[in-house]
Design goal:
Low-confidence stretches: 1-48, 301-305
Structural class: alpha+beta
Helix content: 25-40%
Distance between the termini: 82 Å
Strand content: 25-35%
Mean pLDDT: 85
Shape: elongated
Largest sheet: 5 strands, mixed
Radius of gyration: 26 Å
């Protein structure tokens, strides 16, 4: 159905279909064509030069930081990508992600618009040839098979699942039978995959403001729908929303699915020191506010600011019932590389008798935000717990001892806690055991004996 959202035509089919959120204004990058850069018409009469491109962000520039979605005019998929581009994410990040998909017949377009004197980026998907209808099942299989980076693929599939499950609940049909029709399917796929790639590129914890919900009705393919759209409301289960007196669709289903899947929490404004700001514009003029999404990247979080003075470490934990063993193993390794002093996974049983994993990490306080960001990025959890702790440690030193197999580093822990403990470095012992063709336990015993001497 034709669906007007902030100036775009949405095509939601609510006969078991869904057409996406073309109404806010994305930046274009073709799956198999070059993205076009072009300025949109200004919203006021003053002439303007095309704005200079922002200084580009480095990959991972947001690790350990907060990316705040200040959605004072709502959120849509295209506005999300546009704001991320204005923040400094290279357009090539979106282009490459979309080019990894077996799609064609469209190009991506990046432009700019003026809203209340603020210059914002726009992003659009321009469809050039007929597109097939696609079901959720076919889209998910396409994403699973695409040569995307694992974190991008996981986030994109999680967003689309949120969107598909919302439509399935609205229409009371099986998830795999949900249809995304023609133009709407291409828009949704590009916006979801592009947003996932851009968010993973930044690497920050995503926090979103409560979302404003417009009122009124929209024409869909099979009838008239109330605003906010039923699928958008379903996507936002558990997220804070509030009503505004605007006859317009402010939060699209795709935008709702992105923030619902990516955000770790919702609050008015988190405790952070702003470092970068990006604006993504919609196409339509709103009567009482600029039609834009503002993204703020900054350091410092409410959680870290509230830690007790004697805190030395933070325990980070998440209960996860939908992650494979391979992802869990990779996540543990990534947590340690991010600065955790220990990381673990333990089997638990969650609600409805579901087997699950308790994934945990112990991080020094200065590294806690970075480790938390990795846990959110590399797992399927949508939230985690932070517990400040004080760690009591034995004084330790490291020595190198000579054994009949070779040199081994040994960690010696002392202090007023009984006899000293002597722990050979396992990697050293493994290497020597393989070199000499002897059992590992012999090398370990020889190293301990040498340390005793």
């Amino acid at each position: 159905m034709a669906h007007d959202h902030h100036g775009h035509d949405h095509d939601h089919d609510h006969d078991h279909d869904h057409d996406h959120d073309p109404d806010h204004g994305p930046d274009a990058a073709p799956a198999h064509a070059a993205a076009h850069e072009h300025g949109h018409a200004h919203s006021h009469g003053d002439p303007h030069e095309h704005p200079a491109s922002p200084v580009l962000l480095e990959r991972g520039a947001g690790v350990g930081k907060t990316l705040f979605f200040d959605a004072f005019s709502g959120v849509a998929g295209d506005m999300t990508i546009a704001a991320l581009l204005d923040l400094g994410v290279p357009l090539l990040v979106v282009e490459r992600a979309v080019a990894a998909l077996p799609l064609d017949g469209f190009h991506l377009h990046r432009g700019h618009a003026h809203r209340s004197g603020i210059v914002a980026v726009t992003f659009d998907v321009h469809v050039e040839s007929p597109q097939p209808e696609r079901t959720y099942g076919s889209i998910d299989r396409m994403l699973a098979a695409a040569p995307l980076d694992a974190p991008v693929k996981e986030l994109a599939r999680r967003i689309f699942r949120r969107l598909g499950e919302a439509e399935a609940r609205v229409h009371r049909i099986a998830l795999d039978d949900v249809h995304f029709h023609e133009v709407g399917a291409v828009d949704a796929i590009v916006d979801v995959v592009g947003a996932a790639a851009a968010l993973e590129y930044v690497g920050a914890e995503v926090v979103c403001s409560p979302l404003p919900m417009g009122r009124g009705f929209v024409h869909a393919r099979h009838g008239i729908l109330p605003l906010p759209a039923p699928a958008a409301v379903e996507c936002l289960r558990g997220a804070p929303t509030y009503g505004v007196d605007i006859d317009a669709e402010l939060v699209t289903p795709t935008g709702a699915a992105i923030v619902a899947a990516a955000a770790t929490r919702f609050e008015r404004w988190p405790s952070l020191a702003p470092e970068r700001v990006g604006f993504g514009a919609g196409q339509r003029e709103l009567p009482d506010r600029p039609n834009m999404l503002r993204l703020v990247l900054g350091s410092g979080t409410q959680a870290s600011a509230a830690l007790p003075a004697d805190t030395t470490h933070v325990v980070l934990e998440a209960n996860i019932d939908d992650m494979t063993g391979e992802l869990a193993a990779y996540a543990i390794e990534a947590l340690l590389l991010a600065g955790a002093v220990d990381a673990w996974a333990a089997p638990i049983t969650m609600k409805k008798g579901r087997p699950a994993l308790l994934l945990g990490a112990l991080a020094p306080t200065p590294a806690a935000d970075a480790v938390a960001a990795v846990m959110l990025r590399e797992t399927t959890t949508i939230g985690l717990r932070r517990t400040p702790v004080t760690r009591v440690e034995r004084p330790r030193r490291s020595v190198v001892v000579e054994t009949r197999f070779g040199r081994v580093r040994v960690k010696i822990s002392e202090g007023p806690f009984g006899p000293a403990q002597k722990k050979p470095e396992l990697d050293d012992c493994i290497l020597l055991a393989r070199t000499h063709g002897v059992p590992l336990r012999e090398v370990l015993a020889a190293a301990v004996a040498a340390a005793e001497e």
